[in-house]
Amino acid sequence: HLRFLVGYIARREILTDLQLNAALEYVRSHPLEPLDAADFEQACGVGVCITPEQIEEAVEAVISEHRAELLAERYHFNMGLLMGEARNRLRWADGKTIKNEVDLQVLHLLGPKTEADLEKKPKAAKARLAPVEKQKVAVVENGDVGTETKSLLEQLRGEALKFHKPGENYKTEGYVVTPNTMALLQQHLAITGGQVRTRFPPEPNGILHIGHAKAINFNFGYAKANGGVCFLRYDDTNPEKEEEKYFTAIRDMVEWLGYQPYKVTHASDYFDQLYTWALELIRRGQAYVCHQKVEEIKGHNPPPSPWRDRPVEESLLLFEDMRKGKFGEGEATLRMKLVMEDGKMDPVAYRVKFTPHHRTGDKWCIYPTYDYTHCLCDSIEHITHSLCTKEFQARRSSYFWLCNALDVYCPVQWEYGRLNLLYTVVSKRKIIRLVETGAVRDWDDPRLFTLTALRRRGFPPEAINNFCARVGVTVAQATMEPHLLEACAREVLNEQAPRAMAVLEPLKVTITNFPAPKTLEVLVPNFPADESRGFHKVSLHPTIYIEETDFREEADKGYKRLAPGQPVGLRHAGYVIAVQNVIKDVSGRVIELEVTCTKSDVAEKPKAFIHWVSEPLACEVRLYERLFLHKNPEDLSEVPGGFLSDLNPDSLRVVHNALVDSSVLSARPFDKFQFERLGYFSVDPDSKEGKMVFNRTVTLKEDPGKA
């Protein structure tokens, strides 16, 4: 339709950007059928003449409707609203003319700006973080996060305005329309009923990390926000690196984040169909068997294949020989005849691998590549929106090309920015090196940012989803500080984690005037800010334990906790204790305090209240810091010795003889608590009867040095 469209422009019947955009939209919506000139002209405002009088009347009517707000807010009123409403009344009017008329009439109504009009309008107070459905979302600028009042689902519904509607793939820029496109889209709509379909397609050769959390939220969230479904499809085309434990872990993490796949599929489900299509691609002259070595075709400027123009029948026979195992690994590949967006020529579709597949066994010794498999699996599953990270943008042209070369339904690929985190590595190869060198225990070591590691450390899934919401649906790559993820964890854990008391460095305290024959029962609120959420019981005995750091022999200026002559209150107990005697060992180290207690309602109010335990459980506590010393441990300009030379020697401190109150006795792995005054902690799977193990998830407050 190019000649048709250019004719209107050349004859000056389409004059404005507004008319041109309407014309382009009309043409995109009618990709194949002959255009109706009268319908086209009406849709594009051809011949419509807007007079200055019409503009004046429209602006006058809009200002009249908003007169009261204008007089109240004066020049702080959103003038864009007036322009928008005037444009709605006169669609084809010139925007600059409308703006000038709005400015003129507002000046006539309000008069010149005063000093008060020139002052900046005060910003609304920031709201605290809310659950993921209502989450404040962030714009990432230079690593900083600023809030906007849009939830994650609202963002993803907003993306629907940018993306095509199901069945309208042809409206997407760069989408290739063939004579069969419209018929294929009609068949697609008949199968899906116009439903949005996305997929999350991980490779089952490693554990998911924090970057995958954004992909999961985007794919599953976009489908959910727009009434659709999302497939979990394992891209299991590389049998050398795939293990069953990865399949299980991936699904566990998707469901842990709160998403349920519409269907779980595998690329290997479609191996027979993919092979049949490969034969068809050869028959159509669009693929050939090549014998160049891997080293020869690497990079963007490899020499052209001398086998590119070999006869179709010859390639069919050779491809059959590949399938029968007559070629060794690296001796033959099937290549597609196209040039990709990044200049790479003739990507490989199939290669020989004599490795049994975990699902198909020894049936195949040739396996399809990502470039060949991905778009065709999307087509088979009738995916509407193939959402992937920005590095796959160079493959978009091959995505469209392959579907069209085979005359099958062609979905649309959309790209978004990756989510990266500072002070960590997420590459599978590098994590394996960390495990092999003993720097971390395994993929779920709580110092890593794999999803299994974050779960083990105690991060709630809601916090990870909220973090993805705060990062937002960005096209640009987002590189974030870990403390932003930790802030999301604190917000969620503050609402979810019941309180308990624990002592990391115990100091024995004997109450010499204990007011009961044996014990007192103390009721401790699970959530002090909301006592309606219940209580748990803690026993108070004549012997208690406090933190060593909560006692000093001399109270410095500003020190408010326990010291001779300076009593403190015991949290929740209703008693104030005062030091009577300090007991030391032969080296002069304080090993016990003898104190007296007084009921809080008769004692002078102390300067501070401290936590304590009595008849506690012994436990191990693991305290974590950043695994790496530098923000970008993989950047050789920042860390010349490589990431293994950048390990933080203090990334893990194990407290072997910590004590915790017995209220946590029945806790199970991954149960979470706030240990009062210490931080948020999670029960580690290493816990066993008689010795619980806790991981510190985050401290109670952000360390200013990490922000």
UniProtKB/TrEMBL annotation:
Domain Glutamyl/glutaminyl-tRNA synthetase class Ib catalytic: 195-494
Enzyme Commission number(s) of this protein: 6.1.1.18
Ranges of residues in domain tRNA synthetases class I (E and Q) anti-codon binding: 609-684
SUPFAM superfamilies linked to this entry: Nucleotidylyl transferase (SSF52374), Ribosomal protein L25-like (SSF50715)
InterPro entries, per the entry: aa-tRNA-synth_I_CS (IPR001412), Gln-tRNA-synth (IPR004514), Gln-tRNA-synth_Ib_RNA-bd_2 (IPR007638), Gln-tRNA-synth_Ib_RNA-bd_N (IPR007639), Gln-tRNA-synth_Ib_RNA-bd_N_1 (IPR042558), Gln-tRNA-synth_Ib_RNA-bd_N_2 (IPR042559), Gln/Glu-tRNA_Ligase (IPR050132), Glu/Gln-tRNA-synth (IPR000924)
Enzyme class: ligase
Alphabetical list of Pfam families matching this protein: tRNA-synt_1c, tRNA-synt_1c_C, tRNA-synt_1c_C2, tRNA_synt_1c_R1, tRNA_synt_1c_R2
Record's catalysed reaction(s): tRNA(Gln) + L-glutamine + ATP = L-glutaminyl-tRNA(Gln) + AMP + diphosphate
Glutamyl/glutaminyl-tRNA synthetase class Ib anti-codon binding domain residues: 497-597
Molecular function via GO: ATP binding; glutamine-tRNA ligase activity
Keywords: Aminoacyl-tRNA synthetase, ATP-binding, Ligase, Nucleotide-binding, Protein biosynthesis
Name this protein carries in UniProt: glutamine--tRNA ligase
Organism: Manacus vitellinus (golden-collared manakin)
